[in-house]
Structures are given as structure tokens and as C-alpha cells.
Amino acid sequence: xxxxxxxxxxxxxxxxxxxxxxxxxxxxADIAAAAVRIADAEGLDAVTMRRVAGxxxxxxxxxxxxxxxxxxxxxxxxxxxxxxxELWEPSGDWRADMIRVAHQTRALMHRHTWLPRLMSPVYGxxxxxxxxxxxxxxxxxxxxxxxxxKMELVAMVNGVVTTYVGNEIATAERTRSLPWSADEENAARxxxxxxxxxxxxxxxxxxxxxxxxxxxxxEGVFERALTRVLDGFG
Amino acid sequence: xxxxxxxxxxxxxxxxxxxxxxxxxxxxADIAAAAVRIADAEGLDAVTMRRVAGxxxxxxxxxxxxxxxxxxxxxxxxxxxxxxxELWEPSGDWRADMIRVAHQTRALMHRHTWLPRLMSPVYGxxxxxxxxxxxxxxxxxxxxxxxxxKMELVAMVNGVVTTYVGNEIATAERTRSLPWSADEENAARxxxxxxxxxxxxxxxxxxxxxxxxxxxxxEGVFERALTRVLDGFG
DNA sequence: CCTAGTTACGTACAACGTACGTAGTGCGCT
DNA sequence: AGCGCACTACGTACGTTGTACGTAACTAGG
Lengths: 234, 234
Known about the structure:
- The structure is a homodimer.
- Chain A is mainly alpha-helical.
- Helix content of chain A is about 60%, strand content about 0%.
- Chain A has 2 domains: about 10-80, Homeodomain-like (Arc Repressor Mutant, subunit A), CATH 1.10.10; about 95-230, Tetracycline Repressor, domain 2 (Orthogonal Bundle), CATH 1.10.357.10.
- Chain A has helices at about 30-40, 50-55, 70-80, 95-110, 115-120, 125-140, 145-175, 180-195, 205-210, 220-230.
- Chain A binds a DNA duplex (30 and 30 nucleotides) through loops.
- Chains A, B: Pfam families: TetR_C_1, TetR_N.
């Protein structure tokens, strides 16, 4: 209980290599890549300390030389995939650039479906996150506003992307894991809700479900949400 | 492996009481209340099957007669606190009503700080969730738009509230669990980021942090985000 | 009344994060 | 040059988790 971390212990503040002792067998990039590979292939829940160590080919407890807590492993994973962001020269049209950023982030999250779950609490300040943030701010150079407003815009766009793609992924995984089609799922949901709604206590809900019977166009929903958020910033 | 649930197994579709066998010692409301009490007092991670059973005064495995999986216990918790929503007669000004809804949900989440974590994947269709949804739609009666648009508005407001209050809570819990003040926290973060920014690779980030040195007004951020979202809907 | 379905609960298991102890290794200092 | 210490590596072990399973008691429907 004595000398254990009287400091935030952000992993990015501790150096990867101190110079003393034998050279580490793996880099942080190696570890992050292994964890990302597992998460992409088998889901986030398959990312355990034992499994990652096995993927690297070392003992379980050796991982703790690189990563003090599992939470920091998650941090490494988020930073690794944040490096996949393509950073272009701003076009001069900040609105178009932010839409492009949002679509790219959405694609990134669909490539790594575990990302929304890790991002939803709060995203930190990893190296690649800083580069991404700086790029967003550079896209917003033509947007006449104090930096506080620009940061709020970036946070809002990121929040909306995380929320909506998280929903898309949850929906997709539910329909994939279950042994029936999306239409049947939809029908079953209508059937259950129909029973609730039949009581007459929810007339507007009933009208809503009667209005749009088909499956929801998730991409369209995302696009409209994004447009509305940007509209709110004028 | 044979007869185990070839159906979604939404907990709300199974009756609370079938009539056969001894009468259950507890109601779903009892169980939900116990779990909520624990989560409010000791955090969501303290809500384990053993702990809830202990709070009720029954054996651990007896809980599984009421709740097939832990996920369903979460569902019960969300429904229970959703019942705390105050549902008023719509004022005729849908914008004002939605702002009131959002503030009330925010207050609810601050009262039950584990809510954003449970809501972020997707919120289901529990009885009280349906009542809440119907209330939102009734507030939107003066809003001339198809129900699809109204549903998107409600979803967006809920998403923003969840995201932002989730951030507020994460920030608050970080400063509470750590043995230094918010100012020191802020200073430490500036110090760490300052080191990164000092390289000169992030000029706009540097300018941003130079601009607003004080602590962030989270309530103001929330208020502005909400206003902007509603502005996006005209 | 009987029997089938339900409740109650103790035992048990696999999997998790990780504390701890020990052995080996190589940089920095004297 | 060589000593020492900080670091790496890793096996063992502990506490905790969700929950499968078996058994005993009980109550409504035929």
C-alpha cells in the first residue's frame, strides 16, 4: 500500500524504455497490434491479459511489465487505431471537412467495432489522439470562433459519431448473433411492442410504428444527425 | 444445450408470475430497488449477483429464478429509475418541453450515476421507457414533422444527454477518487499536455489551452450542446 | 389427490485481473 | 573493470465473478 502510484499514472507519461535492465522483447506497438488483432477477430471480450500474452508468445505476467493495468492496454489499443486516421490538407470549407472527418471516423469504427465501447466513457490524450485533434482544429481554421467553441464542435461531432455508430454496431451484432433475419427480428419486435401498444396507452407510439414499417436506414439517420449538429453551429 | 431459449428472451415478455409452484418471495420491483440501492451507494461494479441476493436476504442462485442473466438485472434497474421521470402536460412549446425533458434526464442521471454506462450501448423498450417515449412524442405534437423525424429528435436528445452527463460523471469521479483538487488536476493535465505541445507540432492545441486556462463550465457546455441540437431541427 | 412445473439454495467450475516471489540480465556508476 | 541495482521474465496463487447443475420443498391445475 505504500509506494504505489501517487500520480495519475497516465501510460503516455512513462517512458517506453528506461535504459536499465535487459531490453524489452516487445514494443508498445507490438502489444497494441496483438490486442487489436484479437479484438477485431473475436470481439473485445476476448481481449484478456492471458490471451494477449499468448498472442505475443510470452507469459501472462510479463505483460504487466509493459502495461500496469488492463485499462492501459485499452488505451494502447485506442491510440493504435487512432493512427489509422488519414490527415489531409484542409480544403477551406470547414463544414465539408468535418463531414469528411465524421465519415472517416465512422468507417474506422466499423473496421474496429469495439471502439465505440472503449470511447464512450471518455477519450484520453494519447499521441495519435492529439494529432487527430490538431487536424480537426486545422480544418476549423476558416470557422470564425474562439477555440473553446471549436473544441465543443469537435467534441460534439465525435460524440455523435460514437453514439450512432455504437447503435449501428449493437444492432448489427444482435441480428448476426441471432438465428433469424432482420425482417423476422423486426417482425418480432413489432409483435412484442404491438402487444404493449394494443392497450391504447401509447397512441403516438402506435402511430409511429404504423408509419414506418420497413427496416431503418441507419446510414441516412447518421447523415441527418451529422447535418443537424453542424447546422446548430451555423 | 437443447431447450435453452430459441427466442430473444426479452425479460418484459415473460410474465412475472405463472401461477404454478410456491409464490415468489420477491417482486421484480423489490429486486430492482435492491440493485439500484447498491449501485447508488457503492457504484455499478458493486452490483453482483451475490451482493444483490444478500441485500434481498436470499441465496445467490435464487436470483436466477427471477432474472435469467445479469444483463436482465441491468434492464430491471434501468426500468426502475425510468419510472422516476415526471410526465407533465405538454405546454404547447415543444422546444421548451424538450429542454425540460433533457434537464430532467440529466438530473436523473446525476442521481443515478451508473445510468449513462448502462444506457450507452442501447436503451430497450421497458414499460417505463415506453411511457417516457410516449411522453416525449406528446410534447412534440406541435412539431410539424413525420413521426420518423420526431423519433430521431428524441433519440438525438437522449444521446446527447447520455454522452454529456457521462462525461460529467467521469470527470467528477476522477477528481473525487484522486487525492488532489480540480485545480491541481487541471494543472497536471496542462503540465503533461504542455510537454507534448511544447514540441510545436500542435500549434492550435497550444493556442486552445492558452486561451481557456480555467476549469470548464460543464453545465454551460451541456446547455449549449442541447441548444445546438434543437437548432438543427429548426 | 396426484403430478408437473416452480421456487429455493448449496456446491462447483471455469475464467478473470493481478499480487507476489524468484531468477536472470545488462546499463550506469565508481 | 566490476559492482550493484533497476529492470525483465514468468510460475504460482488468491480472491472474485457469472452461472450450470442437482436436490428438496411446495402449490396450483387435471
